[in-house]
Amino acid sequence: MYENITRWVFAAVLSSLALTQPMVLLWAGQSTNIPDISGSWERARDPSIPPQGQPPLKPQYVKEWQAKMQAIREAAARGEPYAERVVMCLPEGMPGMMAGPFPMEILQSKGQVTIIQEAYTQVRRILLDREQKPVDEVEPGFYGRSVGRWEKGVLVVDTVGIREDVLYQHAPHSKDMRIRERISLGADGLLRDEITIEDPAFLEKPWTFTFAYRRMADYQLLEYICEDNRQYSDDKGLQKIRIPGL
After folding, report:
1. b/e per residue 114-133 (b: at least 16 CB within 10 A)
2. Is residue 78 part of a domain?
3. Could you give the C-alpha distances from 6 to 3, 17, 19, in angstroms and in order?
4. What is the pTM for the complete model shown?
């Protein structure tokens, strides 16, 4: 009888801990617990995160960047939005996809964490416990090559190989740009992605900012397809809509 009571008490304690502690995954061959960040997530407000601020560009690039941002604001005020890359049905790439207002899904498997952004059905793969390749050996792309590892419950990610025409906040960068991330699940249930962009060619110092996300219960990503030939950029760089039949 006492053995049964002991088992019941032990089970009750485990159940109580499960309600108050984040879920963890334990892959075979690994000695540390890994937070369960799988599922659907959406951007969340987090008062503890400071405003992002403008990119710390070197002085010779600041004027051009400010002029472009001013042109974007003026076009929006006139009701003539500036033609962004998304007008051409191009995905945001990294790190822009992590800032998307649409939901994203995270899939965890042994050896890889996959992040799917609903907008433009963007997919990035974080290869776990792999060596990063030299930048010159990585084919430039929208998402680059991401490798990561778990360190005390934090997913530490290194990304290289982002195409030079894939811009975040319209800030220029070189082929050698490096994106470092620290993805962690807080006790408050929020998932945070601390992003640091390093690019000595264009930035005076590393550019760090953080995004927060909340878990979405039972949400399944929807199909998001950008239809070509409906929107385009005119000769002034403004967004236009092509209406069939007109």
Report:
1. ebbbbbbebebebbbeeebe
2. yes
3. 5, 17, 20
4. 0.82
Cα dihedral 143→195→28→106 (10° resolution): -60
Q: Is the dihedral of CA 144, 195, 55, 86 positive or negative?
A: positive
Are the C-beta atoms of 197 and 157 separated by less than 8 Å?
A: no
Residue located via tokens 């108050």: 20
pLDDT at residue 74 above 70? yes
Domain residues for the domain of 218 are: 34-241
Q: Could you tell me if residue 27 is inside a domain?
A: no
**Among 111, 113, 110, 91, residue whose Cα is nearest residue 102:** 91
Query: Is residue 11 a part of any domain in this protein?
Result: no
Structure tokens belonging to residue 74: 């003026």
> Does 23 fall in a domain?
no
Quick: pLDDT tens for 56-66: 999 999 999 99
* Phi-psi category of residue 61: left, alpha or beta, with phi > 0 → left and psi -120 to 50 → alpha: alpha
Is residue 102 packed enough to be buried (19+ CB in 10 Å), middle (13-18) or exposed (0-12)? middle
List the CATH number of the domain containing 196. Answer: 2.40.128.20
Residues whose CB is less than 8 angstroms from the CB of residue 168 and which lie 6 or more positions away in sequence, other chains included: 92, 94, 95, 96, 99, 197
Q: Which amino acid is at 133?
A: K
Tally of structural domains, the chain: 1
Residues 146-196 have pLDDT tens digits of 999 999 999 999 999 999 999 999 999 999 999 999 999 999 999 999 999
